[in-house]
Design brief:
By secondary structure, the protein is mainly beta. The chain is about 5% helix and about 40% strand. The protein has a domain of about 80 residues. It starts with 9 loop residues before the first strand and ends in a 25-residue tail after the last helix.
């Protein structure tokens, strides 16, 4: 779910369709019930995470070795970061591990 304070409370999730070997990321506006497809691609997506300010959604895609960033604006495009495994392990020897989304950006603010 998007962080508190995001002006449009969206819940995003990845859906895998085994028969087609494809996944799609779908956002549901919790206020209106309106759903929209954010992205679709081959194989499986790994995880989705909102930025702390709720403006960006990160979709990790191990099968493509990419992290995809989707702005929350209605008609926003996707910013793809390719070869993300090696970018988290520059100069490493052998295959690089795919980075985990958890903790990708910023620590959570303290609770009041």
């Amino acid at each position: 779910m998007s962080p508190a304070g995001f002006c449009h409370p969206w819940n995003a999730k990845g859906v895998y369709r085994p028969a087609a070997d494809r996944s799609e990321a779908v956002a549901l506006n919790l206020t209106t019930g309106r759903a929209r497809r954010l992205f679709a691609g081959a194989r499986r997506f790994d995880a989705l995470a909102w930025s702390p300010d709720g403006r960006w959604l990160l979709l990790s895609w191990r099968d493509a070795d990419q992290w995809l960033f989707r702005h929350s604006a209605e008609h926003a495009g996707i910013k793809a970061i390719s070869n993300v495994s090696r970018q988290f392990d520059p100069g490493g020897k052998g295959p690089a591990a795919f980075p985990v989304v958890s903790g990708w950006c910023c620590p959570s603010p303290p609770h009041r």
